[in-house]
Amino acid sequence: MDFTKVINYLESLSDIGIPGTDLSLYLKGNEVFRHQTGFADLESQTPIKPDTLYAIWSMTKVVTCAAALRFYEEGKFLLTDPLYEYLPDFKDMTFRKTRANGEVDIEPCTQPIKIVDLFTMSSGLTYNVSNKLIAAAETAKNKDLQEAVSALSKEALYFEPGTRWHYGLSHDVLGALIEVLSGKTFGEYLHDNIFAPLDMEDTFFSLSIPEDKAGRIATAYEFDEITRKHKKAAPTPMIGDWRFESGGGGLISSVDDYAKFANTLCSGGTASNGYRLLGKATVDLMKTNHLDNTRLGDYRWGHHSGYGYGLGVRTMIDKAAGGSNSSPGEFGWSGMLGTVVVMDPTAELTYVYAQQLMPSKEEYVAPRLRNVIYSCL
């Protein structure tokens, strides 16, 4: 296989302001291509290296959902179970009902949040209410995940659970559920059951960055389209000030580490070292579209055309609608600064891409990268 087109594409991204890129591509569990371009830090001219670390933001969500599905496999919950049976603060929730004249009434929910609603972003816990979580972290620096999520439960939902799709804080609540079911902190559970068994030594929550690794984290930048100059991105609460382990966006990782996790899912849930993260039937359920037509309409961001949404991942369901040369059932997710993971069991392909730009230009970069990669196979 000739990946010259991939190299040319990655090298071209500096033209749109991306300071550096990192890509690892696997076929049948073996790395067949690796390429870095540009800089991890522009001021010091530090180049992107194989061990560069990245804030992966919402790619954390895939890890959180995989971790929660381990308890599904153990019979600890059903997807149809009401959340309040495990997190009682979420009983008797209210939601915001908008009248025809635009006025908003707060009304009691007629149905509870189900655990599946957390996985599928159908809970009504949207990012519109993230101020509650930020306030919890800022008012008490020792707030833990349970306390922060409890604060979130006091807010009215943005819609009746299960009726709409809206990106938000559902997977942070899944992290709290994992703590209840495991008897460990969220971070401890991830370390013991995912990171350590998969030899992911460079993956950790942003609030617990080891001193000897902090210098390897790529700097996040903004890019001024007029002046064509970069400036460091402003600190954000999730990376800078939050004091709980965010299942929605709190992890730092390397391309190599995340590829170990992604390859495990792509291979049906069993790692190359024999560790069984999930069963194949569960991975298949994870990458199955779970949205009805109403929620699919909510979900269809422009560059996600052709995709449905499974248990925490996008999943290709209509190649023609997406203009995609990938396989049906190709699944993955991305992060706010432009990190992307794609897993394709049919092609036995996994790739992990990293950059650090805000806004990320994902809608331009990710679908083009996908099409270029598949054209080389």
Offer a quick outline of the entry.
Helix content is 31%, strand content 19%. It contains 13 helices and 15 strands.
Name a few traits of the molecule:
alpha+beta; 31% helix; eight-stranded antiparallel beta sheet
Question: Describe it for me?
Answer:
There is one protein chain. By secondary structure, this protein is α+β, with helices and mostly antiparallel strands. Helices cover 31% and strands 19% of the residues. It is built from 13 helices and 15 strands. The strands form 4 sheets. It has an 8-stranded antiparallel sheet with strand order 3-2-1-15-14-13-12-11, with helices on both faces. A 3-stranded antiparallel sheet has the order 4-10-7. β14 and β15 form a beta hairpin. α2 (60-73) packs across α6. The radius of gyration is 20 Å and the shape is globular. The relative contact order is 0.18. The model has no long low-confidence stretch (mean pLDDT 93).
